[in-house]
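ERR on first pass: missing label on line 2. Operator R.T. fixed the label and resubmitted. Corrected input:
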Amino acid sequence: MKYAFFPGCSLESTGWDFALSTRAVCRALGIELVEIPEWVCCGSTPAHTTNASLSVALPVMNLQKAKEIGLPVLTACASCYARLRTANHTVLNDPEERGRAERITGKPYDGKVEVRHLLDVLVNDLGVAAVREKVRRSLKGMKVACYYGCLLTRPPNIVAFDNAEHPSCMDQLLTAIGAEPIEWPFKTECCGASLSITNSGIVNRLSYRLLSMARQAGAECLAVACPLCESNLDLRQADATKAHGPIPATPVLYITQLLGLALGLSNSDVGLEALSVTAEPLLAGIEA
Amino acid sequence: MPDTLEWQTGTFLKEVERRSGTPVSACFQCHKCSTGCPIAPEMDRLSSQVMRMIHLGQEQPLLESESIWLCASCEACTTRCPMQIDIAAVMDSLRMMAVEAKALLPNARGEQFNRSFLQSVSRNGRVFELGMMVAYKLRSRDFFADAEKTGQMLAKGKLSLLPKKSGNAKAVADVFRRAEEEEKKR
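pass 2 clean. output:
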Protein backbone atom coordinates (compact mmCIF):
# COMPACT_ATOMS: atom_id res chain seq x y z
CA MET A 1 0.00 0.00 0.00
CA LYS A 2 1.55 3.22 -1.19
CA TYR A 3 0.12 6.74 -1.20
CA ALA A 4 1.13 10.28 -2.12
CA PHE A 5 1.05 12.02 1.27
CA PHE A 6 -0.33 15.55 1.54
CA PRO A 7 0.59 16.81 5.04
CA GLY A 8 -0.86 20.35 4.78
CA CYS A 9 0.31 23.47 6.61
CA SER A 10 -1.11 22.69 10.06
CA LEU A 11 0.73 19.37 10.20
CA GLU A 12 3.99 21.30 9.87
CA SER A 13 3.16 23.63 12.76
CA THR A 14 0.31 23.46 15.27
CA GLY A 15 -0.33 19.81 14.43
CA TRP A 16 3.26 18.49 14.14
CA ASP A 17 2.33 15.69 16.53
CA PHE A 18 -0.47 14.66 14.14
CA ALA A 19 2.10 14.40 11.32
CA LEU A 20 4.60 12.51 13.48
CA SER A 21 2.02 10.01 14.73
CA THR A 22 0.46 9.58 11.28
CA ARG A 23 3.82 8.72 9.76
CA ALA A 24 4.71 6.40 12.67
CA VAL A 25 1.38 4.55 12.55
CA CYS A 26 1.55 4.12 8.78
CA ARG A 27 5.11 2.76 9.06
CA ALA A 28 4.03 0.30 11.76
CA LEU A 29 1.09 -0.87 9.64
CA GLY A 30 3.05 -1.22 6.38
CA ILE A 31 1.51 1.77 4.62
CA GLU A 32 4.12 3.62 2.57
CA LEU A 33 3.79 7.41 2.36
CA VAL A 34 5.59 9.43 -0.33
CA GLU A 35 5.31 13.15 0.45
CA ILE A 36 4.01 15.15 -2.54
CA PRO A 37 7.08 17.12 -3.69
CA GLU A 38 6.80 20.88 -3.17
CA TRP A 39 3.17 20.65 -2.08
CA VAL A 40 1.38 23.95 -1.49
CA CYS A 41 -1.42 25.09 0.86
CA CYS A 42 -4.92 23.86 -0.05
CA GLY A 43 -6.29 27.38 0.58
CA SER A 44 -8.56 26.11 3.36
CA THR A 45 -11.58 28.23 4.39
CA PRO A 46 -10.01 31.65 3.63
CA ALA A 47 -9.73 30.68 -0.08
CA HIS A 48 -13.26 29.33 -0.54
CA THR A 49 -14.78 32.34 1.21
CA THR A 50 -12.69 34.83 -0.78
CA ASN A 51 -12.00 33.59 -4.31
CA ALA A 52 -13.76 30.57 -5.80
CA SER A 53 -11.20 30.16 -8.61
CA LEU A 54 -8.32 30.11 -6.15
CA SER A 55 -10.08 27.56 -3.91
CA VAL A 56 -10.05 25.08 -6.81
CA ALA A 57 -6.65 26.00 -8.31
CA LEU A 58 -4.58 25.53 -5.13
CA PRO A 59 -5.73 21.93 -4.46
CA VAL A 60 -5.43 21.19 -8.20
CA MET A 61 -1.73 22.18 -8.13
CA ASN A 62 -1.18 19.39 -5.59
CA LEU A 63 -3.34 16.87 -7.42
CA GLN A 64 -1.39 17.51 -10.63
CA LYS A 65 1.82 16.70 -8.72
CA ALA A 66 0.28 13.51 -7.35
CA LYS A 67 -0.74 12.53 -10.86
CA GLU A 68 2.89 12.91 -11.97
CA ILE A 69 4.05 10.43 -9.33
CA GLY A 70 1.12 8.15 -10.16
CA LEU A 71 -0.22 7.53 -6.66
CA PRO A 72 -3.56 8.10 -4.93
CA VAL A 73 -3.42 10.92 -2.37
CA LEU A 74 -3.66 10.32 1.37
CA THR A 75 -4.18 13.15 3.81
CA ALA A 76 -4.79 13.24 7.56
CA CYS A 77 -6.10 16.80 7.99
CA ALA A 78 -9.90 16.92 7.75
CA SER A 79 -9.88 20.36 6.13
CA CYS A 80 -7.24 19.56 3.47
CA TYR A 81 -9.18 16.37 2.77
CA ALA A 82 -12.42 18.28 2.18
CA ARG A 83 -10.70 20.91 -0.01
CA LEU A 84 -8.91 18.34 -2.20
CA ARG A 85 -12.10 16.29 -2.61
CA THR A 86 -14.15 19.41 -3.36
CA ALA A 87 -11.67 20.49 -6.06
CA ASN A 88 -11.93 17.06 -7.70
CA HIS A 89 -15.72 17.19 -7.53
CA THR A 90 -15.78 20.67 -9.10
CA VAL A 91 -13.36 19.82 -11.92
CA LEU A 92 -15.19 16.56 -12.71
CA ASN A 93 -18.67 18.08 -12.80
CA ASP A 94 -18.17 21.57 -14.14
CA PRO A 95 -16.30 21.95 -17.46
CA GLU A 96 -16.20 25.73 -17.06
CA GLU A 97 -14.51 25.48 -13.66
CA ARG A 98 -12.14 22.84 -15.04
CA GLY A 99 -11.13 25.21 -17.83
CA ARG A 100 -10.59 27.97 -15.31
CA ALA A 101 -8.42 25.77 -13.05
CA GLU A 102 -6.35 24.60 -16.04
CA ARG A 103 -5.80 28.15 -17.25
CA ILE A 104 -4.78 29.30 -13.76
CA THR A 105 -2.37 26.42 -13.09
CA GLY A 106 -1.20 26.25 -16.71
CA LYS A 107 -1.58 22.45 -16.79
CA PRO A 108 -4.33 19.99 -17.68
CA TYR A 109 -6.23 18.19 -14.91
CA ASP A 110 -9.16 15.77 -15.24
CA GLY A 111 -10.25 15.59 -11.59
CA LYS A 112 -9.51 11.89 -11.36
CA VAL A 113 -6.65 11.54 -8.87
CA GLU A 114 -8.11 9.61 -5.96
CA VAL A 115 -8.10 11.45 -2.59
CA ARG A 116 -8.40 9.38 0.57
CA HIS A 117 -8.47 10.20 4.25
CA LEU A 118 -6.14 8.22 6.49
CA LEU A 119 -9.10 6.84 8.47
CA ASP A 120 -10.81 5.69 5.26
CA VAL A 121 -7.63 3.83 4.26
CA LEU A 122 -7.20 2.26 7.71
CA VAL A 123 -10.80 1.04 7.97
CA ASN A 124 -11.64 0.23 4.36
CA ASP A 125 -8.31 -0.73 2.70
CA LEU A 126 -6.27 -2.18 5.54
CA GLY A 127 -9.22 -3.23 7.71
CA VAL A 128 -9.67 -3.14 11.49
CA ALA A 129 -8.73 -6.83 11.79
CA ALA A 130 -5.21 -6.06 10.49
CA VAL A 131 -4.90 -3.28 13.07
CA ARG A 132 -6.12 -5.58 15.85
CA GLU A 133 -3.47 -8.18 14.97
CA LYS A 134 -0.67 -5.65 15.49
CA VAL A 135 -1.76 -4.43 18.93
CA ARG A 136 1.06 -4.76 21.47
CA ARG A 137 -0.39 -2.72 24.28
CA SER A 138 -4.17 -2.84 24.56
CA LEU A 139 -5.84 0.40 25.67
CA LYS A 140 -8.25 -1.83 27.58
CA GLY A 141 -11.02 0.02 29.33
CA MET A 142 -10.06 3.52 28.13
CA LYS A 143 -13.29 5.47 27.63
CA VAL A 144 -12.93 7.68 24.57
CA ALA A 145 -15.34 10.12 22.93
CA CYS A 146 -14.69 9.98 19.19
CA TYR A 147 -15.00 13.51 17.89
CA TYR A 148 -15.27 13.65 14.10
CA GLY A 149 -16.03 17.36 13.74
CA CYS A 150 -17.32 18.80 10.48
CA LEU A 151 -15.31 18.16 7.40
CA LEU A 152 -14.45 14.48 7.77
CA THR A 153 -18.03 13.57 6.88
CA ARG A 154 -19.48 16.70 5.29
CA PRO A 155 -20.81 17.41 2.80
CA PRO A 156 -21.69 13.75 2.17
CA ASN A 157 -21.93 14.07 -1.62
CA ILE A 158 -18.23 14.95 -1.64
CA VAL A 159 -16.66 13.11 1.32
CA ALA A 160 -18.51 9.84 1.39
CA PHE A 161 -16.55 7.20 3.31
CA ASP A 162 -18.57 7.29 6.53
CA ASN A 163 -22.08 8.24 7.69
CA ALA A 164 -22.48 12.03 7.84
CA GLU A 165 -24.60 12.15 10.99
CA HIS A 166 -23.41 9.05 12.83
CA PRO A 167 -19.90 8.15 11.67
CA SER A 168 -18.17 5.10 13.13
CA CYS A 169 -14.66 4.71 11.61
CA MET A 170 -12.85 6.03 14.69
CA ASP A 171 -15.09 3.99 17.00
CA GLN A 172 -14.22 0.84 15.04
CA LEU A 173 -10.48 1.51 15.18
CA LEU A 174 -10.53 2.28 18.91
CA THR A 175 -12.54 -0.85 19.64
CA ALA A 176 -9.90 -2.82 17.72
CA ILE A 177 -7.15 -1.52 20.03
CA GLY A 178 -9.10 -2.38 23.19
CA ALA A 179 -10.51 1.05 24.05
CA GLU A 180 -14.19 1.65 24.78
CA PRO A 181 -15.62 4.38 22.56
CA ILE A 182 -18.62 5.92 24.31
CA GLU A 183 -21.93 6.84 22.67
CA TRP A 184 -22.49 10.59 22.66
CA PRO A 185 -24.57 13.02 20.62
CA PHE A 186 -21.90 15.54 19.54
CA LYS A 187 -19.73 13.40 17.26
CA THR A 188 -20.13 15.79 14.33
CA GLU A 189 -20.89 19.11 16.05
CA CYS A 190 -18.57 21.96 15.04
CA CYS A 191 -15.81 23.34 17.33
CA GLY A 192 -15.87 26.75 15.63
CA ALA A 193 -12.70 26.12 13.59
CA SER A 194 -10.74 29.29 12.74
CA LEU A 195 -13.22 31.49 14.61
CA SER A 196 -10.71 30.80 17.42
CA ILE A 197 -8.64 33.64 15.94
CA THR A 198 -11.38 36.15 15.14
CA ASN A 199 -14.06 35.32 17.75
CA SER A 200 -12.47 33.21 20.47
CA GLY A 201 -15.55 33.63 22.71
CA ILE A 202 -17.60 31.51 20.30
CA VAL A 203 -14.96 28.78 20.26
CA ASN A 204 -14.81 28.80 24.07
CA ARG A 205 -18.55 28.23 24.18
CA LEU A 206 -18.47 25.43 21.60
CA SER A 207 -15.41 23.73 23.13
CA TYR A 208 -16.98 23.83 26.58
CA ARG A 209 -20.17 22.32 25.19
CA LEU A 210 -18.28 19.48 23.52
CA LEU A 211 -16.00 18.74 26.47
CA SER A 212 -18.79 18.80 29.04
CA MET A 213 -21.02 16.55 26.93
CA ALA A 214 -18.16 14.09 26.42
CA ARG A 215 -17.60 14.02 30.19
CA GLN A 216 -21.32 13.63 30.94
CA ALA A 217 -21.42 10.67 28.56
CA GLY A 218 -18.60 9.03 30.53
CA ALA A 219 -15.52 9.77 28.43
CA GLU A 220 -12.07 10.33 30.00
CA CYS A 221 -10.55 11.71 26.81
CA LEU A 222 -11.39 12.68 23.22
CA ALA A 223 -9.99 11.34 19.96
CA VAL A 224 -9.81 13.74 17.01
CA ALA A 225 -8.60 13.74 13.39
CA CYS A 226 -8.31 17.46 12.66
CA PRO A 227 -5.62 19.93 13.79
CA LEU A 228 -8.15 22.72 14.41
CA CYS A 229 -10.42 20.48 16.52
CA GLU A 230 -7.36 19.47 18.55
CA SER A 231 -6.18 22.98 19.16
CA ASN A 232 -9.65 24.34 20.00
CA LEU A 233 -10.36 21.57 22.51
CA ASP A 234 -6.86 21.15 23.97
CA LEU A 235 -4.95 24.44 23.81
CA ARG A 236 -8.15 26.42 24.54
CA GLN A 237 -9.57 24.06 27.16
CA ALA A 238 -8.37 26.27 30.05
CA ASP A 239 -10.06 29.34 28.50
CA ALA A 240 -13.26 27.40 27.83
CA THR A 241 -13.58 26.15 31.41
CA LYS A 242 -12.61 29.55 32.82
CA ALA A 243 -15.41 31.17 30.82
CA HIS A 244 -18.13 28.56 31.30
CA GLY A 245 -17.48 26.40 34.35
CA PRO A 246 -15.22 23.66 35.65
CA ILE A 247 -14.71 20.33 33.87
CA PRO A 248 -12.05 17.80 34.89
CA ALA A 249 -8.94 18.21 32.69
CA THR A 250 -9.73 16.16 29.59
CA PRO A 251 -6.90 15.07 27.28
CA VAL A 252 -7.63 15.50 23.56
CA LEU A 253 -5.49 13.18 21.45
CA TYR A 254 -5.16 12.60 17.75
CA ILE A 255 -6.52 9.15 16.94
CA THR A 256 -3.10 8.37 15.46
CA GLN A 257 -1.51 9.01 18.86
CA LEU A 258 -3.83 6.45 20.50
CA LEU A 259 -3.28 3.97 17.65
CA GLY A 260 0.49 4.44 17.88
CA LEU A 261 0.56 3.78 21.62
CA ALA A 262 -1.46 0.59 21.10
CA LEU A 263 0.94 -0.51 18.36
CA GLY A 264 3.80 -0.32 20.89
CA LEU A 265 5.21 3.12 20.06
CA SER A 266 6.51 5.36 22.84
CA ASN A 267 4.97 8.63 24.07
CA SER A 268 7.62 10.63 22.21
CA ASP A 269 7.22 8.52 19.04
CA VAL A 270 3.70 9.93 18.78
CA GLY A 271 4.51 13.42 20.13
CA LEU A 272 2.45 13.35 23.33
CA GLU A 273 4.59 16.20 24.71
CA ALA A 274 2.80 18.55 22.30
CA LEU A 275 -0.50 18.24 24.20
CA SER A 276 -1.49 21.13 26.49
CA VAL A 277 -3.65 18.90 28.70
CA THR A 278 -1.31 16.08 29.64
CA ALA A 279 -2.33 12.50 28.86
CA GLU A 280 -0.07 11.03 31.55
CA PRO A 281 -2.73 10.29 34.21
CA LEU A 282 -4.89 8.75 31.48
CA LEU A 283 -2.09 6.43 30.35
CA ALA A 284 -0.99 5.54 33.90
CA GLY A 285 -3.72 2.93 34.05
CA ILE A 286 -2.66 1.24 30.81
CA GLU A 287 -0.22 -1.65 31.10
CA ALA A 288 3.11 -1.04 29.36
CA MET B 1 -50.20 39.87 -11.80
CA PRO B 2 -47.02 41.16 -10.21
CA ASP B 3 -44.26 38.75 -9.37
CA THR B 4 -44.11 37.83 -5.71
CA LEU B 5 -40.53 36.65 -5.85
CA GLU B 6 -37.84 38.92 -7.11
CA TRP B 7 -36.07 36.11 -8.97
CA GLN B 8 -38.51 36.28 -11.83
CA THR B 9 -37.34 39.71 -12.84
CA GLY B 10 -34.78 40.25 -10.23
CA THR B 11 -31.27 40.98 -9.45
CA PHE B 12 -30.11 39.99 -5.98
CA LEU B 13 -31.64 36.48 -5.71
CA LYS B 14 -30.63 35.71 -9.26
CA GLU B 15 -27.11 36.94 -8.66
CA VAL B 16 -26.72 34.90 -5.43
CA GLU B 17 -28.03 31.80 -7.21
CA ARG B 18 -25.67 32.33 -10.13
CA ARG B 19 -22.61 32.81 -7.94
CA SER B 20 -23.34 30.03 -5.45
CA GLY B 21 -24.71 27.62 -8.07
CA THR B 22 -27.46 26.56 -5.69
CA PRO B 23 -31.28 27.05 -5.76
CA VAL B 24 -31.88 29.55 -2.96
CA SER B 25 -35.41 30.09 -4.29
CA ALA B 26 -36.29 26.50 -3.28
CA CYS B 27 -36.10 27.41 0.44
CA PHE B 28 -39.53 26.96 2.10
CA GLN B 29 -38.47 28.19 5.53
CA CYS B 30 -38.40 24.91 7.45
CA HIS B 31 -35.56 26.37 9.58
CA LYS B 32 -33.73 23.05 9.80
CA CYS B 33 -30.48 24.86 8.92
CA SER B 34 -30.87 27.37 11.74
CA THR B 35 -31.84 24.65 14.22
CA GLY B 36 -28.59 22.78 13.64
CA CYS B 37 -26.31 25.81 13.23
CA PRO B 38 -23.60 25.80 15.94
CA ILE B 39 -23.17 29.59 15.69
CA ALA B 40 -26.93 30.39 15.82
CA PRO B 41 -26.76 31.98 19.32
CA GLU B 42 -24.28 34.58 18.06
CA MET B 43 -25.83 35.24 14.64
CA ASP B 44 -27.75 38.46 13.99
CA ARG B 45 -29.55 36.69 11.09
CA LEU B 46 -30.16 32.96 11.26
CA SER B 47 -29.32 31.01 8.13
CA SER B 48 -32.99 30.46 7.25
CA GLN B 49 -33.55 34.20 7.69
CA VAL B 50 -30.60 34.82 5.37
CA MET B 51 -32.36 32.66 2.72
CA ARG B 52 -35.58 34.64 3.17
CA MET B 53 -33.81 37.99 2.99
CA ILE B 54 -32.30 36.89 -0.32
CA HIS B 55 -35.81 36.06 -1.61
CA LEU B 56 -36.96 39.51 -0.58
CA GLY B 57 -34.00 41.27 -2.16
CA GLN B 58 -32.75 42.75 1.10
CA GLU B 59 -29.26 43.12 -0.23
CA GLN B 60 -27.86 45.90 1.89
CA PRO B 61 -28.82 44.69 5.39
CA LEU B 62 -27.66 41.22 4.45
CA LEU B 63 -24.27 42.25 3.10
CA GLU B 64 -23.80 44.34 6.24
CA SER B 65 -24.84 41.57 8.61
CA GLU B 66 -22.47 39.95 11.04
CA SER B 67 -23.78 36.47 10.33
CA ILE B 68 -22.12 36.07 6.96
CA TRP B 69 -18.73 36.48 8.70
CA LEU B 70 -19.56 34.26 11.67
CA CYS B 71 -20.42 31.17 9.62
CA ALA B 72 -17.76 28.55 10.43
CA SER B 73 -18.30 26.67 7.12
CA CYS B 74 -19.09 23.49 9.08
CA GLU B 75 -21.54 22.43 6.35
CA ALA B 76 -24.19 21.09 8.76
CA CYS B 77 -26.85 23.25 7.05
CA THR B 78 -25.78 22.12 3.56
CA THR B 79 -25.83 18.47 4.67
CA ARG B 80 -29.31 18.69 6.20
CA CYS B 81 -31.23 20.99 3.84
CA PRO B 82 -34.25 19.01 2.53
CA MET B 83 -34.14 21.07 -0.68
CA GLN B 84 -30.43 20.43 -1.27
CA ILE B 85 -29.56 24.09 -1.03
CA ASP B 86 -25.83 24.49 -0.45
CA ILE B 87 -26.31 27.08 2.28
CA ALA B 88 -22.61 27.20 3.19
CA ALA B 89 -21.83 28.07 -0.45
CA VAL B 90 -24.39 30.88 -0.27
CA MET B 91 -22.56 32.26 2.79
CA ASP B 92 -19.30 32.16 0.77
CA SER B 93 -20.92 34.06 -2.10
CA LEU B 94 -22.39 36.67 0.26
CA ARG B 95 -18.95 37.32 1.77
CA MET B 96 -17.44 37.85 -1.65
CA MET B 97 -20.31 40.13 -2.66
CA ALA B 98 -19.91 42.12 0.58
CA VAL B 99 -16.20 42.64 -0.08
CA GLU B 100 -16.87 43.66 -3.69
CA ALA B 101 -19.65 46.03 -2.68
CA LYS B 102 -17.35 47.44 0.01
CA ALA B 103 -20.29 46.92 2.35
CA LEU B 104 -19.79 48.17 5.85
CA LEU B 105 -18.29 45.09 7.48
CA PRO B 106 -19.55 44.91 11.05
CA ASN B 107 -17.26 42.03 11.83
CA ALA B 108 -14.36 42.83 9.57
CA ARG B 109 -12.08 40.52 11.56
CA GLY B 110 -13.23 37.60 9.43
CA GLU B 111 -12.21 39.43 6.29
CA GLN B 112 -8.95 40.62 7.89
CA PHE B 113 -8.11 37.05 8.86
CA ASN B 114 -8.82 35.80 5.32
CA ARG B 115 -6.57 38.45 3.80
CA SER B 116 -3.74 37.76 6.26
CA PHE B 117 -3.97 34.01 5.68
CA LEU B 118 -4.02 34.24 1.89
CA GLN B 119 -1.23 36.82 1.81
CA SER B 120 0.93 34.36 3.75
CA VAL B 121 0.13 31.56 1.29
CA SER B 122 0.81 33.77 -1.74
CA ARG B 123 4.26 34.64 -0.37
CA ASN B 124 5.37 31.26 0.93
CA GLY B 125 3.24 28.72 -0.89
CA ARG B 126 2.19 27.57 2.59
CA VAL B 127 0.82 29.30 5.67
CA PHE B 128 3.47 30.80 7.92
CA GLU B 129 1.41 30.98 11.13
CA LEU B 130 3.48 33.48 13.08
CA GLY B 131 3.75 35.91 10.15
CA MET B 132 0.05 35.48 9.42
CA MET B 133 -0.85 36.24 13.04
CA VAL B 134 1.30 39.39 13.08
CA ALA B 135 -0.34 40.59 9.85
CA TYR B 136 -3.79 39.83 11.26
CA LYS B 137 -3.07 41.64 14.55
CA LEU B 138 -1.86 44.72 12.67
CA ARG B 139 -5.02 44.74 10.56
CA SER B 140 -7.48 44.04 13.38
CA ARG B 141 -5.66 46.04 16.13
CA ASP B 142 -6.67 43.07 18.30
CA PHE B 143 -3.23 42.88 19.95
CA PHE B 144 -3.92 41.29 23.30
CA ALA B 145 -6.17 38.38 22.44
CA ASP B 146 -4.27 35.13 22.91
CA ALA B 147 -0.90 36.80 23.54
CA GLU B 148 -0.09 34.15 26.17
CA LYS B 149 -1.02 31.34 23.74
CA THR B 150 1.78 32.38 21.41
CA GLY B 151 4.41 31.66 24.09
CA GLN B 152 2.77 28.35 24.94
CA MET B 153 2.71 27.33 21.28
CA LEU B 154 6.31 28.36 20.67
CA ALA B 155 7.37 26.30 23.70
CA LYS B 156 5.60 23.25 22.30
CA GLY B 157 7.12 23.64 18.86
CA LYS B 158 3.71 24.49 17.38
CA LEU B 159 4.89 27.75 15.81
CA SER B 160 8.10 28.25 13.92
CA LEU B 161 9.97 31.54 13.80
CA LEU B 162 10.69 31.28 10.09
CA PRO B 163 8.40 30.31 7.19
CA LYS B 164 8.68 26.79 5.78
CA LYS B 165 8.48 27.84 2.16
CA SER B 166 7.26 25.51 -0.53
CA GLY B 167 9.71 25.10 -3.43
CA ASN B 168 6.68 25.96 -5.51
CA ALA B 169 6.11 29.40 -3.92
CA LYS B 170 6.84 31.26 -7.16
CA ALA B 171 4.21 29.23 -9.04
CA VAL B 172 1.74 29.89 -6.22
CA ALA B 173 2.22 33.64 -6.55
CA ASP B 174 1.42 33.31 -10.28
CA VAL B 175 -1.65 31.21 -9.46
CA PHE B 176 -2.89 33.93 -7.10
CA ARG B 177 -2.46 36.56 -9.80
CA ARG B 178 -4.26 34.51 -12.48
CA ALA B 179 -7.04 33.50 -10.06
CA GLU B 180 -7.69 37.19 -9.36
CA GLU B 181 -7.97 37.82 -13.11
CA GLU B 182 -10.28 34.83 -13.67
CA GLU B 183 -12.46 35.89 -10.76
CA LYS B 184 -12.98 39.34 -12.29
CA LYS B 185 -14.20 37.77 -15.54
CA ARG B 186 -16.91 35.71 -13.84
